[in-house]
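Dissemination and training. As part of the outreach component of the grant, students in the summer workshop were shown how a complex can be specified as a set of sequence lines and then modelled as a single object. The example used during the hands-on session is reproduced here so that future cohorts can follow it. Participants entered these lines:
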Amino acid sequence: MLKSIKESPLHRIANARSMAFFGASNNIASMGTHLLMTALAGGFKGKIYPVHRKETRVQNLTAYGHVGDLPEIPDLAVIVLPTSVVNQALEDCGKKGIRHAVVVSGGFKEVGDQGAQLERSFKKIASEYDMKILGPNCLGVANPHCNINTTFIPDEGAPGFVGLASQSGSFVTQIFEYLSGFGLGFSTAFSVGNEAVLDIVDCMEYLGACPHTKVIALYIEGIRRGRAFMEAARAIVPHKPIVAFYVGGSKAGKAAGFSHTGAMAGPDGIYDGMFRQTGIIRAGSVEEMFDFCWALGALPAPRGNRVVIQTHSGGPGAAAADACGRAGLKLSTLSEETLGKLAPFVPSTGSMGNPVDLTFSKNHGAFFSDIPDILLAEEDADVLLVYLLSPKRVVQRVLKGMGLADEAVGEQALKITQSNAEQFARRLKTQQKPIVGYTFHRSDAYIMKQAIARGLPVFQGAERAARAIAALVSYARVKQQRSI
Amino acid sequence: MLKSIKESPLHRIANARSMAFFGASNNIASMGTHLLMTALAGGFKGKIYPVHRKETRVQNLTAYGHVGDLPEIPDLAVIVLPTSVVNQALEDCGKKGIRHAVVVSGGFKEVGDQGAQLERSFKKIASEYDMKILGPNCLGVANPHCNINTTFIPDEGAPGFVGLASQSGSFVTQIFEYLSGFGLGFSTAFSVGNEAVLDIVDCMEYLGACPHTKVIALYIEGIRRGRAFMEAARAIVPHKPIVAFYVGGSKAGKAAGFSHTGAMAGPDGIYDGMFRQTGIIRAGSVEEMFDFCWALGALPAPRGNRVVIQTHSGGPGAAAADACGRAGLKLSTLSEETLGKLAPFVPSTGSMGNPVDLTFSKNHGAFFSDIPDILLAEEDADVLLVYLLSPKRVVQRVLKGMGLADEAVGEQALKITQSNAEQFARRLKTQQKPIVGYTFHRSDAYIMKQAIARGLPVFQGAERAARAIAALVSYARVKQQRSI
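and obtained this result:
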């Protein structure tokens, strides 16, 4: 395991202080132009040197006819040229003394024999000049902590704690908005493409040492260095959770992965075993991968798998109980002491089983304070799972019924949800037990948005919440085993 | 099978022309008041008669001290009273000649022995006066086609084609917003509660005959009349698909279901067999239930299970291919003819395998017209699955780059996405093959919103899309077998 990201061959890629940019122009229809515009929009602090044969200015930057003409040796070259001229540009960079590159251009190994031949030359040049390269056929890196982004779309939202190493650039660049919708963001995200030089193992090692990364996500179409992958994972897992989504396991996924990045996928069982042996948590979809990352990065480790469910609606409670059962979790048995404390809060139509179902409660505030406190104090509960509803119209109705003027209703409703979320989220900080929310509403509706902003993961639906809790439990077990 | 909804005991509940309302007042903290306000907000056209001992006006309606005083016999009584006085009110309704009721009050069988005793008296009264009743412990009915809504939250969006019979009121009332986010809505939704008189089978039969209902969704915690359920399902399925989500199958789900509505759940395998024998499609979550309903209600039946995937991003393409494989679908093998027609549209970095991956294409419009046409014409393809991306910032960037003023950018971007969605959706109408979209973006972002508004189902993620397609295929097979 790396002691510091400075030991990583990716360090000067993810933390470049200056870049040469090949393939950007003033033509908005070109991909290179888009990537340069993203880099500029991200607020990159260092120098960017566009290299262009004809233009003297590119996107308001001074352009250079040849990389040899640059006034300094930049940390990084970003290459978005037609396939046929990539290798020449790479060699020019080598001659200039540039030692790191992101090669976005495709048309190599993934398109067949001729491309494979080009990729062999590519690797020879890299080796000759000792160049550390991401790609070809990748989107490079997004490190919002350093305002670096060589991908297609500008980052949204704040930097986060999820480190991603991905064999698809889309799952870097097209996922920014998705994550920011949940208040999440990348610490650093790598798109590795064909992995001609640097691969997903190198990225994993970088992220293992990255201080901003609390949890590592891997999108895998096929691992090229199996042994190195396992060694790296084994070393990282006791310190930092790793979540993987592997698509090469079905026949259809395998073929698609090959034509995408030339990856050689293996049987699903082999990968499953590899993940289990190393303590990597396997996700079944991209969304699930980030669900797991959310729980693992935001919450403390549970002591066990006993869940107590808090709801005011029977159906969502029953669905959560069933989902927990299917995810291998247990439902807590509440003690006499807990039941005694709960009794004053639960109406006769409610239930003090587990799920604890308040039904229609007149003491709305207790749902976010007294009741979670009582349930978190229960000895037989390791995790609290809470159903959240955001009936905007009902809140408005109550406030209007209390005589509030229309214009004051919105403001007051916001205050109430903020205060509820505040009270609720305070438990996250003072309690050692994970608290997880679930809802059928959107993450930007009322209480969900407020709770998420305060660090509480709120999942879309009971099944996703239950599976995320199971991932938490699974990692806590792995960590316990490994640290003994 | 019913020939018409008029034969159903639920007809005058779901299509009531007048209501007596018990338990509403001018106190906004009472549940009855909320339900009356929902009924009013929904724009119910008929007369509503609040019954209240003390108040003479309730929510600006004339209130009556006793149901016997009402000037007419209303079609329906809605009862939201404390448990202890429910049976008396029911008897008063019977005496008045009211033959239909929704009893919202809980505290019956679901709370134990004493409640079970009350429920027996409840049933006796119902039988004595030949009353058709939904509940107790339910939320009644929402029929947006008739502006009837006895639940907690006003309906959102337009009436739709999904008929729901639910053993949880939450999955009626708390799901309005969720559905409307996808352009979906209920035709009629029933919350059945403890099923003392009418049950989920009655609702299913009503929905089977309901002309607005294209697909039936069932949320099940336990079926009380197994044989009747199977007979009804067998009769309906050849004409209308039924999707069920059953939560009683795990130990945890079973216990939760009992304390919710007193339902007796059975082993998962029994229910699974019952669903398979009758051709009901089983969903694994509430979200999946509505995903399946969306596909089944919006799309034509596929001839087989061969899917062609269209993408401009390799990772999402590979994830979809893998998801299709895991869902039991096949990937089409494209013919020489199709490949010949595709060639001019696919750049050298793209792939003409399946997924068809355009990568970075300069001819953006073709993605929504020529390419789907070519793929839909492929003999080996039964379903077209298309990845949709909504990179707002990239669209804006391109338009700005073309010299558009800032204020014109938004307008122009909307025009483009509208035109693309229009072109795309036209294929839905002229083609006999289902077209399904998937995305990692929100359903209200740019192209997704436009496509959804034009009737194209766009699912959140590749797995949900693949499973929805599998549900389509499965129903098409069932229908074929049953009609021979």
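Chain B has a mean pLDDT of 92. Students were then asked to discuss how this feature might be tested experimentally.
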